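Deviations from the work plan: none for this task. Representative record:
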Amino acid sequence: MSNAFFSDLLTSIAERGRNLLDGRSWSFSEASVTAADVLALCGALLSGRGEATGAVIARETLDAFARLPEAARKSFFEVLAREFGPDQAQLERAVEAFRLAPDGAAASRLHYMSEPRRQELFRRLNRAPGGTKDLVAMRVDLLKICNEVAEFALIDADFVHLFNSWFNPGFLVLRHIDWGTPANILEKIIRYEAVHQIHDWDDLRRRIDPKDRRCYAFFHPALIDEPLIFVEVALTAAMPDNIQGLLAADRALEHPEKARTAVFYSISNCQQGLSGVSFGNFLIKQVVEELRRELPHLDQFVTLSPVPGFMKWLSSGDAPPISRLEQALRDLLMTDDWLESPEKQEAVRRALEPMAAEYFLKAKSQKGRPVDPVARFHLGNGARLERINWLGDRSPKGLRESAGIMVNYLYDLEEIEANHEAFLNKGEVVAASAVKKLLRGDTRSMFSRQSPSGPVATT
Amino acid sequence: MSNAFFSDLLTSIAERGRNLLDGRSWSFSEASVTAADVLALCGALLSGRGEATGAVIARETLDAFARLPEAARKSFFEVLAREFGPDQAQLERAVEAFRLAPDGAAASRLHYMSEPRRQELFRRLNRAPGGTKDLVAMRVDLLKICNEVAEFALIDADFVHLFNSWFNPGFLVLRHIDWGTPANILEKIIRYEAVHQIHDWDDLRRRIDPKDRRCYAFFHPALIDEPLIFVEVALTAAMPDNIQGLLAADRALEHPEKARTAVFYSISNCQQGLSGVSFGNFLIKQVVEELRRELPHLDQFVTLSPVPGFMKWLSSGDAPPISRLEQALRDLLMTDDWLESPEKQEAVRRALEPMAAEYFLKAKSQKGRPVDPVARFHLGNGARLERINWLGDRSPKGLRESAGIMVNYLYDLEEIEANHEAFLNKGEVVAASAVKKLLRGDTRSMFSRQSPSGPVATT
Amino acid sequence: MSNAFFSDLLTSIAERGRNLLDGRSWSFSEASVTAADVLALCGALLSGRGEATGAVIARETLDAFARLPEAARKSFFEVLAREFGPDQAQLERAVEAFRLAPDGAAASRLHYMSEPRRQELFRRLNRAPGGTKDLVAMRVDLLKICNEVAEFALIDADFVHLFNSWFNPGFLVLRHIDWGTPANILEKIIRYEAVHQIHDWDDLRRRIDPKDRRCYAFFHPALIDEPLIFVEVALTAAMPDNIQGLLAADRALEHPEKARTAVFYSISNCQQGLSGVSFGNFLIKQVVEELRRELPHLDQFVTLSPVPGFMKWLSSGDAPPISRLEQALRDLLMTDDWLESPEKQEAVRRALEPMAAEYFLKAKSQKGRPVDPVARFHLGNGARLERINWLGDRSPKGLRESAGIMVNYLYDLEEIEANHEAFLNKGEVVAASAVKKLLRGDTRSMFSRQSPSGPVATT
Amino acid sequence: MSNAFFSDLLTSIAERGRNLLDGRSWSFSEASVTAADVLALCGALLSGRGEATGAVIARETLDAFARLPEAARKSFFEVLAREFGPDQAQLERAVEAFRLAPDGAAASRLHYMSEPRRQELFRRLNRAPGGTKDLVAMRVDLLKICNEVAEFALIDADFVHLFNSWFNPGFLVLRHIDWGTPANILEKIIRYEAVHQIHDWDDLRRRIDPKDRRCYAFFHPALIDEPLIFVEVALTAAMPDNIQGLLAADRALEHPEKARTAVFYSISNCQQGLSGVSFGNFLIKQVVEELRRELPHLDQFVTLSPVPGFMKWLSSGDAPPISRLEQALRDLLMTDDWLESPEKQEAVRRALEPMAAEYFLKAKSQKGRPVDPVARFHLGNGARLERINWLGDRSPKGLRESAGIMVNYLYDLEEIEANHEAFLNKGEVVAASAVKKLLRGDTRSMFSRQSPSGPVATT
């Protein structure tokens, strides 16, 4: 019952932010602002005056920054990078002290003396109502020009450091997104969906309203109306092998109480300003927990994932040398009409399956990790590569990126810890034996619906 | 309207925390736990395994710590202090790099290389449901024994650093506390009131339920059911000069629409584990804003504050040499029966007033700041010392600490910034002229109800 | 603060209803249901068994009714009309007693003895979770066939009586509908808009999201997710004279703080099952109150209303005999190309203005009330007819219904009581003098923007 | 998720009510008010003016009534009784029409023509913000003097009729009351507890905060901050036989997951103005449902109930003639020292047990129903009398009312319907065989802890 009390807390936060946004546009004079103006305010904020006035100067600073012309923002960041570092004299003393006696106390002092004043600036800016949102937006501005000035990376490191602290998973709130969610949130779900586009409100409704569909998002109490990341889930009888069937408008509804499988078929980050702050791992695990609590019959948690890097890798020099036959098939593939005849399809399939297995199980980036970014994400979370689905995505994008191949990653709660460690420490890609067999050219069971016989690790 | 959506967010947080608390006591085996067990879990949490399992290991670690016997906690902290610092080799390389080229990039690298692994540990522990609360409690455990081992100060510095980031005022929520507040919160208001004790629920009700009384508290979204700091406010016609009248059960009610003055008569911090994280300044300013919005007629924001250090200072060697007359009066004061006769009262008053002015305006600590901690707080916030109230607090505590003297600090929004800077930069104690005159021995207008003629700064 | 406690109350209601709706489809066997089955359940509900089992039989009865084939519903209502009236013997005794001694006690007894058992049945059905919604739906079923059997009017009278009691304005809740409102509510706003169609979600957003637009709806705590009635409001500088300009996608935004006029341009009832229960009057007055509180600068509350009956009246025999010139113009009007030339427009205008004034000020229905239903509503609420707007609605519907004429009704809070009484008791149509002059053929000031010189009553 | 939207609804109601209450005291002039003033307002409200002004006149009327001196209220009610009945002429016509053709239509017309204008008055008064609360309070005023004027019963019948419609169980909301409930609600729980007094806030906390204790209340959306009825529940291993043990401050806590029995040990109505509107039956059944959902292991729902009428009955002439031995024992009982010796206790027990069985199973009121009001309530709900507990309540009140005897009523969901019908239709008191045996003088198993062998009905 006391939840009601706490539920009011966030109402307060939200109102504070909203009042602010309402007021801002009128309260501000129309005169132009320069980088020097904003920097002067930053200086005041870091000085004693900032202490006394609470959040007022912080608010003014952020408002002034928002009105800076683009070019002036670059100037602003340049000064931020160069003149808002640590106090050089103090830092040098701390360095010398550490060299004389490199103990814990000296290291600690070194740490605090080397903190760039930018960080304290950002913390003070965050005191403003709506400050967090504005700081995330400020980083978006920075990222646009981050490559133009080397020192901008220092500012960005400070942003990432602070945001990782502030957006600690312990502070995030998981929300079920459904047809009763406010329209302003749903509008952002439509906009931010990055994997399988949501075309309009009807399409959205098909993804969140039926009983066998779920959508969950992480929110942060200080970022009103803004999902951070969301995942779309389908409840099905068995592990699905293609996305068009899963999303078909005329598909049969699954009774959620009878579903055995939860399929994570789309995960999208929403905040560019929070790139480098990782939420996906926690989101998936918290949603698994939530679903198990609600639907105890669920016993299989899988993804239906794209393979965004496959075709690029195939056409790059990184793929292994291939036979003339394979080359011919790949030429065929490029012609785009191979889908029209079963014979061509079958020929392509036979050529591509082993390549896909190679791509997942053997191909490595320069850092020695899987080439595919989605694979890195799920394998890094402790999932195993469960199945390669031939023609899992027949959309133009799917055919272009991966010749239509999709994969399932399986989250087996008993194994994710071991899988994760094997992946992290030894670079092992844990995969089902069927995937492994494919590598050897034995593709018989590959695209069938039979459940694979068990995990096989491949280094 | 969408506030409702966000108000649900915190409900989720609260429930998550509460489920956890419910479950914890049964879910845990009764076997004893050692510091080594907890440290092993900390190690796992910092390793890859912690990544994979989300919040599970974090939760186990905090649960295990909670079951550590007291002695084992000390052992745990010792290892934490000594072995969870930064990576020494990397740090030394960063130091050398900085010495070769002491630029921003090297300083930044130095900063991140010198971060103690404790901080990352605390951030990962915070991922557990209810983690923030447990970390604040862990610091309480640390503070109890902080003096026993020098390196414990390093851990504490890390706690303070993180808590200052996490409890940034931008993340706090101001709540009006009234008779409709959940009992579990009100119970804590009773318990944490540190200035003028709340005796029971009836006493509490007299402070929060009448229309001319207010109470506001800061909450943090991740600390369910826990006020961080609260302030009690009385709405009055004029600036009050004594606390007993203000709190009398049979006082006349003031119509809030007619009140001109808001009196902050008690501010209490609630969380020992957050000492060193400062909320009071922001609380007062946000409450002033809130009250002005609701009651536009209010035009005076003052405190009625204790003077906790006066008698101690008076009896210490720090007070200035005094005449034999004054000495006699002070002897009288010690006899405790001076309150019984008007003559003795008057004699004491004449002797003490100049001393009180001296105490506030001239006396300095070794750091050159006012001796009185309450004065340091309000003057540091930019308030000015408005009036010294003779016999403002006739309670045993009031007489013991300050011979019954109380003071009003005035928050004049037009001046707080200038006051604050004068105080911070030049050590000026901004005070009303009446207080200043008192110093010169001219006490005629001092304890009258007349409003003072204006501020006078005294160095 | 305790609002949070109460805000939880409705959450409970909503959940109860929703759980029910979820469960219903599975919990019920698929066997067919007959009117006799439902009537048997009704009997049980009215007997003692209904008392004992709380809401269970009520729920079963409503579920069974929902599964009745359409024809069976008619049979069900026939029995309800004929056999669920009052106890005839008791009623006759009460009649005789009243005749012997027609005092208050006898009248009271007569009243309670004559209550049809249907009413108690409906009250008991309402005990079921979700019962209110189902009863409103049951009346929709009844209304479809109400004309087929004379006695059905008796059932309907009982519904109307109960719903008027249950949906008492004191139990309704006014909600601001905006872009943060849950999508399932907004979807219904789109669907139920009856005056100026909302074409899609973008169109909806233009009506509720901009700062100078508002939408308010009444809800009842027991009817989850269902608006009862809503009104759309535009904040403008002056009283508008046409709807296309008001709703134009590219119109200039009005700053809400500067707007002087609130325009109610669309009011739609949502629940067919609640026809005969009047909400509009209360809605308008509560919204006026709400707007005045929020925006004290508003000093004019008007409608921009359609004239749905004008053309029908004009072409009926009810309109007054007209001259040959007028006849020619009306013929022109029917040709539909008069809009294309200014000359023809002007000719039509001159002919139609006096007719419109006649329509509003003189024409009466058989009951002696204004012919126009919208006029009856607003005049009955105490508004005055403020202006007739030539070509206020150029949409096909507007041209078809009223040759494009729209009107403004003005809600002057000082006068609504007197206006209402004059209208109710004496049949007076209170109208601005400009409208009145139009009647006399003096149309000079009619369609100008000048504010009319004052109200003139016309009998 | 959309629950949040609806949870806001009630916040609105609550605020509306609260603003009203705040404002009322100042907005009203201090001049005295007479019954005639209030009646004039009532007349206006029933006339057209009331329609036009929405809730304003309703509010004024209720405010004026609240300021009426007590004597004036009586005058007011007298006019209400005599002059706010139905329209006599219309009623007489309806009576004649019915006599000519006593069909459904005529009966319906009779019903609506005989409705006292009071009912419409009350419905219109209810439109005022806070109106429901004031009407409930108005009935409290009426009940105080209801016996003084015969016609007041007519007004009361109208109140009861309306309140039964408005407070239909379908509109009530069940809330769990715990230590996180707002203090203003908890204060009322303390005040309204009518069975086992709650002494202070600590006592309250012992009843609602421990995991094995629950408290549930019904609320109505329009009655802010006011519980209607509440029940206190203990979760125990077995059916308890005495209240002192159940409420002991030092009792052992029961793990709620392990408890098999839910004990309803106190049910209290809160609103005197709603007497005659029955909530208890629904409350118990809804709480049973709630508990079963949360704690599926619970398989026994019983009460531990007082026997308030036993001693009164015993000392009245209604008890059966008793033997000299019994008389002696009863004399002993009156001496009050029989508790001090086991022998006397045993003697008393042997004498009283059969009398208690007689009291429950045989004794009837003039209406042929059980003498004990608590028995009537639970038996009427379909519970069965499960056990008579010797010395179940050793409090002064318990000894005075029932010589310390308490009973358990068992709610067996499978049987309550049949029990209820047997009780209602045939007057059967369904009781366990052990209770029945007691009647025959076979008391061996009576006060043991053994579970009784099964229900036995006794006429």
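Chain A has three domains: 2-166, 170-303, 310-447.
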